[in-house]
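Lab notes, practical 5.
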Amino acid sequence: MNPTLLIPNYDHGRELGPVLEALAPHGLPCLVVDDGSGRETRDLLAALAARHAFVQVHHRDRNGGRGAALATGYRLAASRGFSHAIQLDADGQHDASDVPRFVEAIAKDPDALILGAPVFDASVPKSRLYGRQLSRVMVWFTTLSFDVVDPLCGFRAIPLGPAVAWLDEAPRGDHMEFDAELVIDLVRRGVPVRNLPTRVVYHPGGLSHFDTVRDNLRLAGVYARATFDLPIHLLARRKPRAGQQPA
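Output from the prediction step:
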């Protein structure tokens, strides 16, 4: 087991500073994938990397979206010999003190996808809360499983072997739909899921790159495609494995 922290970032330079300060005591390396941020953020990231020896920053040439940044991060982490990426957001919504709990969960079940199960306070926007409930139902339906408590939480531990294999097979969504798409496909591949309750806070005036119209349409597209190919998934599940007799 060899985990790394992974943070996708787009123009969250000021918010990222306190996040890294909170992560420093946990003794894990941290890869920040900067998704084409502006000059001010790039300068702030350079200063943060100089201040924190455990932090490395990888710059993408242009902004490609959350999914594109995460895909880059998974591949980089795997190429550097890491087994898991403990992923969290740059905006400070996630409770960095829960990192040891994710490490412990990986140690107990290294083959599993460890998903943060958000514990919200009054700061959560109602639209986000209702949207998550709908996403949860759609993931239950398209995976034929109730294992996933929340398919959208950005605080999660990713087994990099299955994740990179998934990336290699076909193009994936480059934006906010990526998190749900990953969950659906890994569950369908038989990757076990463990859910870890963790506090999530929406800070007043916080910078969010979630576009209510476009990103909800992208999520709807993921769920529509997963529904359309559900019969193919069912047929694949019925195929006998090597050494088994047909059902």
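Observations recorded by the TA: The domain at 3-232 is CATH 3.90.550.10 (Spore Coat Polysaccharide Biosynthesis Protein SpsA; Chain A). The two ends are 37 Å apart (CA to CA).
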